[in-house]
Amino acid sequence: MTDPNRERYRIRETAFYLFTQQSLPACKPVLTPGWVITIFLFMGLIFIPVGLVTLRASHSVVEIVDRYDIECVPESSRIDKISYIQDDSIPKNCSRFMKVRKYMKAPINIYYQLDNYYQNHRRYVKSRSDKQLLHGRKYHDTSSCQPVELNNGQPIVPCGLIAWSLFNDSFTFIRERAELKVNRKNIAWKSDRDHKFGKNVHPFSFQNGTLIGGGKLYPKIPLSDQEDLIVWMRTSALPSFRKLYGRIEEDLDVDDVIVVNLMNNYNTYSFGGKKKLVLSTSSWLGGKNNFLGHACIIVGCSSLVLAIVFTLLHLKYRR
Amino acid sequence: MSGWDTVNLPLKSQPGSSRLKTVSRTVTLGRVQPQMPTFRTIFCNDRDANFAHRYKGNSISTTKYNIFTFLPKGLYEQFRRVANLYFLMVSILSATPYSPVHPVTNMVPLSLVLLFSLIKEAFEDWQRFQNDNAINSTLVDVLQAQGWETLQWKKLQVGDIIRVKQDGFFPADILLLASTNADGVCYIETANLDGETNLKIRKGLEKTWDYSSPEKACEFKGEVQCEQPNNSLYTFSGNLVIDNQTLPLSPNQILLRGCSLKNTCFIVGAVIFTGHETKVMMNSMNVPSKRSTLERRLDKLILALFCTLFSMCLLGAMGSGMFIDRKYFYLGLRENVEDQFNPSRRFLVIILTMLTLLTLYSTIIPISLYVSIETIKFIQSSQFINKDLNMYHAETNTPASARTSNLNEELGQVEYIFSDKTGTLTRNLMEFFKCSIGGEIYGTGMTEIESGIAERIGINVQELQTSTDSVQEKGFNFYDERLLRGAWRNEPNHDACKEFFRCLAICHTVLPEGDESPQKIKYQAASPDEAALVLAAKNFGFFFYRRTPTMIYVRESHVERMGKTQDVSYEILNVLEFNSTRKRQSVVCRYPDGRLVLYCKGADTVIYERLGSGNDYLNKVTRDHLEKFGSAGLRTLCLAYRDLAPDLYESWNEKFIKAKSSLRDREKKLDEVAELIEKELILIGATAIEDKLQEGVPSCIQTLSRAGIKIWVLTGDKMETAINVAYACNLLNNEMKQFIISSETDAIREVEERGDQAEIAHFIKEDVKKQLKKCLDEASQYFCSPSGPKLGLVIDGKCLMHALDPSLRIMLLTLSLNCASVVCCRVSPLQKAQVTSLVKKGARKITLSIGDGANDVSMIQAAHIGIGISGLEGMQAVMASDFAIAQFRFLEDLLLVHGRWAYIRLCKVVMYFFYKNLAFTLTQFWFTFSTGFSGQRFYDDWFQSLYNVIFTALPVVMVGLFDKDISPSLSKKYPELYKEGVKNMFFKWRVVVLWAFFAVYQSLVFFYFISASTSTSGGRPGKMFGLWDVSTMAFTCVVVTVNLRLLMMCNSITRWHCISVGGSILVWFVFIFLYCGVMTPLDRNDNMYWVIYILMGTPYFYVTLLLVPVAALLVDFLFLGVQRWFFPYDYQIVQEMHKDEIHGTGLSGLLESKHEHTAEVARSSEISRLPREVSKHSGFAFDSPGYESFFASQFGKYVPPKAWDVARRASMKSKAKPK
Q1: What is the ipTM score, two decimals?
Q2: CA of A30 vs chain B CAs: smallest distance (Å)
Q3: In a designed cystine with B537, which of A67, B79, B504, B680 is the match (CB 3.0 to 4.6 A)?
Q4: How far is CA A279 from CA A56, A57, A169, A185, B451, in A?
């Protein structure tokens, strides 16, 4: 036995001895008032700045939200919105005006926001075939797509409820009579485009059934380029969600009035869902969201307050 | 060679013997074959003849499984656990379309848990198998073809003639044929059976004495007809038919497996019962397995979780029934909708969604909890308890041993200890310790109790190491220069000394054995007290070396002849024996010069009654001394003598002979005659014998009682002895209010003499009732006042028998539960168990029994925790026990350190499991509300399945092993901390609710913080998160938070805590990196692909990861701070008192206890400074020879002839010698 070996053996023995005698070296944190105060103070000092920075980022975002689902139904049809929306013969176009209150720097994201829409319903979430999305008709097993699986015995591509209920309102933006250029590319995550939707998969027999759920797809364009579909199929976590529609790549000035010509095709009336159009700039943290900032500040402030209260208590009732 | 080894090892049956296989099959069908006759016939030395009977082989198997039964039986055992069964059901449910989760979600944790448990079972069974194998392969000499052949135990067959050598163990139950000792006698030690270390005599039939050589033994063709195997250790009936002669057999010829041969060169015997049919094996079955109280409480918690689960499911299912509606056109509910979502069948929707949610929320039941607990307990017991150096007894090389790992935490909640006396509290070793001669105390020793008192009042008394030149012998622990080595001749009262020593040397019933030299002689005595007294006489220079029926020979060193010895023979004229009513023993002897003296020794009360007048001063001083001895826990005897005039003696002797020869009431008449001469005695002095306590017993008891543990002594001894030991152990003292309920009253004795059993029973019962009532009335006035004296209860077996009667039981319980200590004497093993279960069931307290002998087994099994004393004594108690320790004092470590820690740790583990699963599952629950109650899973299948078994499994085990609130020395220094366990402070519903509150709060933080913060923000440029991004974010926060929460609950954080907590979080990230990064054609895993990289590419991830865990833990932290500050637990106070001390390793603690040697002069003066309150207790105790057979007769056990029948034995001996 060489020396380092013996040394190692000895160390192991010692460690095992300490283990069995339950005397392993340990630090014993005792949560004395001093420590409590220090930790609270520390928390406060960290979270208040973080919160302020986050809140500032959120405040720097300019956001215009316009709910259009009611306004875009003609007064006469408002009593029975469902038959209005289901009647293909009625033109669905509609114009909305949005006033820019603050300077908005490009790129300005265009979102549509749906409320009370359960994209996370279990029946909905599982009604898709990931393999078909990638391999197209070569992949035959579409059983997971129920109930939108087959049309006249032929598998639908893309199959499933999610694709079937594709959102199909469309928006054009006009500022001072000139149409704003809307970039509809790169609205889906790259990983989805590249790995989940086939480059050679073309829609087939899509929305040909007796019931039309939502938008149609151009049969000529492969799924990997149908970014609306890709965005739509990344199902949302909550029943109220925003999805990216496109980007306006021009700055908008204060008091600009944007005319939005939209096609109000999508039926949210039957279940009382809301539709909103959102124009929003973005910060480093994403869109406008005060929650994180507020939460940080609340955590920080309460820590600080607790630290002070504890200090006072500590001074008054010294142990 | 035939069918013996096939019985338990069917796989190993010898090739080519198809018949053997059928044998094994029939045998394994059932233990008792229906056609079995009521007796068996064994043909000794004839394997072929015995073969027809197909007796069992001698190989034993204690394994639970074999290769074929392992899987089915092992799985069956596992699925008896509700949690496992539940998960099996959920797994099956997961395979149905109603499940939102893949079957893998529940299968993976279940199979991991099962795999782990099965491996553990297999390992334990393998160890048992190895153990069996070692036993089965022990070698023994078997007679084969004219010679001894060494065979393995397992090859032994019924009817074989075997030879067992000295110190060897008997491989089976054997009929003793011949022995190398004269008269076919052999000595055996039955320690393994009943824990008694004294040798027992077995004697072969005279007819078979000669068959000791192989040649002769070959000729032996006996036929044994005996009872079928049974488990009664002390009975045996059968006949040996030899040469057409039928000789009856008794237990006296049977050598049981498990005993060992002593003091005999070898014996030859015939095997009659083998393997599992031996009496010891038939006894060692069906040891009830115990479950700890904590585990039973845990079941309740699990039940509560099931209820929670059920209500969560019900709530969700109702929601789903209400939610589902055709208006949600995008759900495609128009035509041929499956039942679960069919809006027109809402009731069915509710039912099916119940099932869905049941699988979804299954994580609320902590499946890995039991495995984790078992692992923790196993390591705790095998590594910590078994290897603790503080509980290692170096002298006997015995470490503590946890024989079950089920009960570790139970050790932390013990409220009542039931202890045996002999061998547990005491060493069963009597040592001559002090004496008082002519009004002068001799002996400088200090009893444990004295040093205990000294330590308590702060005098630092170091244990005296007796100087090397002093006389040291087992049984003689006396040191005083004034008396030893003949120095007593210079004492002023040397005449008294001489009488004192003579009395010791003459007045006894001891029998010397072995060489007649002071070094080699051995004294055989009925009681160890007597031996100690004679031994003392020897050391003082009065060496008793020979006894004949009429003479006692003593080698004396006299005053007159300095340094010379003189052999003096005293003629023993009469022996007036000891019994429990007389409490004294006298000898009338004639000096060589014709002087007639009566020497008497006995209890102070009886001696003082019979002292002559005059000499009041001496009597008074001696009485003081007796009290002093008594309060020091010593057993005292008074010595007295009386010179007899020849004519007085002669007239008395006539009466004595007459009484002796009377046929009726001889005992009573003898007692009356003795009274006539045992009077006008002259007091010589008093002896003080230390019933040597086990080391550290008083201080251990002191510590334990400070810890709120009440200690009851249950002993078979007499009341005096028991009380004496209770004094010595500090269980009783004079400040206590003592209640004594005894059957030794005159009234009872009177009734008993009338002999009507029914009347006796009735009378005693009434009497006990009266006594109990009186005690209770008296005691109840102290119940409420905390300042009142402590209460103590002493009760004897006969009274106890009646007090345990259902009608009196309540009274007994009320009284005894209010006593600080209870002493039950003269109780039978059964009563010990009854008392134990009285407290266990009647008072619902956690009980612990500790004992060393077979008579403690029932008590050990009855208590929640049974502890056996291992090392010196036998194995029976240890075999029945849950823990075995070498010394009583190790209880302190076992309970206060190991038990306390195990309890605290286990509570933490359970609570943490509860919390982490609740917090996790509740996030899922909140999510259900925003999915239209559809039962959509929030997390990926693998997250959910690995959450319990990978991402949060290890750190909690670390807490279960390493968490240490205070050091062992502190928990022994503040035994009061133990009360937290007794009160179950850490596993109350209050604690559960608290943890549940934190779990609910945290789950709300997880779900709502993350859903609120992702609703509008996302990645750049403007892309939004989907469901799986959000859930991965949430899960990351859960894993981090839950692991950090663990660190917050640790009292000590070792390297391993950091490694395991950091490791768990790291493993999660490594897992998710791989899981999200790899997409194989087989498992496309589209949902999760690249999710974590998308998340980590956004600053949002980092801000959230900082915010959510802190926000979730803030309230916990606040609670911990406030709790410690304003409502601290006791241990937290101790922690802070000692937080600046450097906690050394265990070594320093060991070093501290080393004693320093100090001058003995200083010590004596220290002793003299001790406070000595006047005691009413004078410490008389003397083992009455009669009680030994007390239990024996109860068992129907064979009782050897009275050992104190000295004269008879002496005559036998002298006859035997010339031979």
Answers
A1: 0.95
A2: 7
A3: B504
A4: 19, 17, 15, 17, 89
